[in-house]
Design brief:
Elements (H helix, E strand, L loop, with lengths): L4 H4 L6 E4 L1 H10 L9 E4 L9
Antiparallel strand pairs: 1-2
């Protein structure tokens, strides 16, 4: 498996992971509807505020 670019940076970037295959499939199957596709916050160290 290829390591995500965000993991290789210092500090590692906090990102929103999107299910691109699901987004594409949904766009083809339901092109005129508004659909919410779940996303995941990947906290890796770049967006946190020090305590």
């Amino acid at each position: 498996m290829v390591q995500p670019l965000a993991d290789l940076l210092q500090p590692a970037l906090t990102v929103i992971a999107q299910r691109t295959a699901e987004i594409g499939r949904t766009a083809v199957e339901q092109p005129v509807q508004s659909v919410v596709v779940p996303v995941t916050l990947k906290v890796r160290g770049s967006g946190e505020v020090p305590a």
